[in-house]
């Protein structure tokens, strides 16, 4: 009887949900992160290096001083000041913190959404631009990159901007999952032509050793996104936007008051005060990326694209990527399978640069 009631009420709640949940949301599929337990994890662009033990001890002492019964500092003032200093951010620009830069992308969508409005991005790119737009009241216009080298198709981008008049254009620089840097002249043409906001997402800027942050002075319609995730702090969930107050002050109104929790504020501040430790790791990752690229490039049956980020995109020419993905997993290695994510990425996989021994294990496995 109890069970019967349970299944009846769950059937009712399902039909009620179908009636009320927004159609756009029901059409989406949730972002899926696979279980990586027991595997060498080379799928999510994480920094592979743990914190040094001495640093962990000092960090734990800092955490012990936190008043966890109190709400966080709503403005994250200490952390913001440290970010400005450590990252050399322009003093006269605003900065806004997010629970990962994903949250900032969502704030931008909330800021701009409305009937008949769209956002535009070249594709393939970071999937959250599309997902967040579709979950908001925004259409998403994907403009194909060039299929051979994944460069921006300047004419196609400018024509689409002219035609669709997007509220925002998202440009990942370097791009994920292709790893390349877009042509500077095309980026400048987009900034000049875009009627609304242009977002340059610099999630991988430290691995590329280049940034377009100083373009903020010439282009008031630009907002730059950064994140600590790929630098070694994916677990903290901290991203930030830099730009003119005309945009950021409005975004701040939509931010939930305590979006950066106290443990993140304290831990990120601590990490930034010890940033040289992590800068060293980033240098290692850049060097190991070059080694991994050379090795993959010299491997039969693999096409590889040059990367300015901490991952490498490659195609398995004579084998199905689905099969290679499964075989790698059987050998204890998890990479990202992009085969079904975009037609240009048929038989493509993406490997994150790990520790040297992890990269070696991956190379041995892929060659066999
Ligand atoms: C990983 C990634 C992000 C999101 O990072 P957060 O962990 O949410 O800060 C944003 N943009 C690009 C291009 C990414 O690859």
Which features characterize this protein?
about 375 residues; alpha/beta; Aspartate Aminotransferase, domain 1; Aspartate Aminotransferase, domain 2; 2 domains; seven-stranded mixed β-sheet; four-stranded antiparallel β-sheet; about 15% strand; globular; binds pyridoxal-5'-phosphate
Describe this structure as you would to a colleague:
The chain contains 14 helices and 13 strands. The longest helix has 23 residues, at 275-297. The strands form three sheets. A seven-stranded mixed sheet has the order 2-8-7-6-5-3-4, sandwiched between helices. Strands 9-10-13-12 form a four-stranded antiparallel sheet, covered by helices on one side. Helix 5 (101-112) crosses helix 10 (245-254) and helix 12 runs parallel beside helix 14. The chain folds into two domains: 23-51 and 277-367, Aspartate Aminotransferase, domain 1; 69-274, Type I PLP-dependent aspartate aminotransferase-like (Major domain) (Aspartate Aminotransferase, domain 2, 3-Layer(aba) Sandwich), CATH 3.40.640.10. Helix content is 43%, strand content 16%. It is α/β, with parallel strands linked by helices. Residues 45, 100-102, 126, 172, 176, 201, 203, 227, 229, 239 line the site of pyridoxal-5'-phosphate.
Please give the structural blueprint.
Blueprint: H1 2-20, H2 23-26, E1 40-41, H3 53-64, H4 77-87, E2 94-98, H5 101-112, E3 118-123, H6 127-135, E4 139-144, H7 154-164, E5 168-172, H8 184-193, E6 197-201, H9 205-208, E7 222-227, E8 239-243, H10 245-254, H11 262-273, H12 275-297, E9 302-304, E10 311-316, H13 321-330, E11 333-334, E12 336-337, E13 348-352, H14 356-367
Parallel strand pairs: 1-11, 3-4, 3-5, 5-6, 6-7
Antiparallel strand pairs: 2-8, 7-8, 9-10, 10-13, 12-13
Bound molecules: pyridoxal-5'-phosphate (PLP).
Pyridoxal-5'-phosphate (PLP) binds at residues 45, 100-102, 126, 172, 176, 201, 203, 227, 229, 239.
């Amino acid at each position: 009887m109890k069970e019967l009631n349970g299944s009846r009420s769950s059937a009712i709640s399902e039909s009620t949900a179908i009636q009320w949940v927004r159609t756009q949301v029901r059409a989406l599929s949730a972002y899926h992160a696979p279980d990586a337990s027991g595997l060498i994890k080379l799928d999510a662009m994480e920094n592979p290096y743990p914190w040094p033990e001495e640093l962990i001890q000092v960090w734990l002492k800092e955490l012990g001083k936190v008043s966890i019964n109190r709400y966080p500092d709503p403005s994250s003032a200490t952390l913001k000041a440290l970010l400005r200093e450590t990252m050399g951010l322009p003093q006269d620009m605003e900065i806004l913190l997010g629970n990962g830069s994903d949250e900032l992308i969502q704030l931008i969508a909330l800021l701009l959404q409305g009937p008949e409005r769209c956002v535009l991005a070249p594709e393939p790119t970071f999937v959250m631009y599309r997902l967040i737009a579709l979950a908001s009241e925004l259409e998403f216009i994907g403009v194909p990159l060039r299929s051979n080298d994944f460069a921006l198709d300047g004419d196609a981008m400018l024509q689409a901007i002219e035609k669709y008049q997007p509220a925002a254009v998202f440009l990942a620089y370097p791009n994920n999952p292709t790893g390349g840097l877009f042509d500077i002249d095309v980026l400048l043409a987009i900034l000049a032509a875009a009627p609304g906001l242009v977002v340059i997402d610099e999630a991988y800027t430290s691995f590329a050793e280049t940034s377009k942050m100083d373009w903020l002075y010439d282009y008031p319609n630009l907002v730059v996104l950064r994140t600590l995730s790929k630098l070694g702090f994916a677990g903290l969930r901290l991203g930030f936007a830099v730009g003119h107050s005309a945009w950021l002050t409005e975004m701040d109104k939509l931010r939930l008051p305590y979006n950066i929790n106290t443990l993140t504020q304290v831990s990120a501040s601590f990490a930034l005060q010890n940033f040289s430790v992590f800068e060293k790791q980033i240098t290692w990752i850049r060097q190991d990326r070059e080694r991994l690229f050379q090795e993959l490039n010299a491997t039969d049956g693999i096409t590889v694209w040059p990367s300015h980020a901490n991952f490498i995109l490659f195609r398995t020419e004579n084998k199905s990527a689905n099969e290679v993905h499964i075989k790698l997993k059987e050998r204890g290695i998890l990479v990202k399978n992009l085969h079904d994510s975009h037609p240009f990425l048929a038989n493509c996989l993406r490997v994150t640069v790990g520790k040297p021994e992890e990269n070696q294990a991956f190379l041995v496995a892929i060659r066999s």
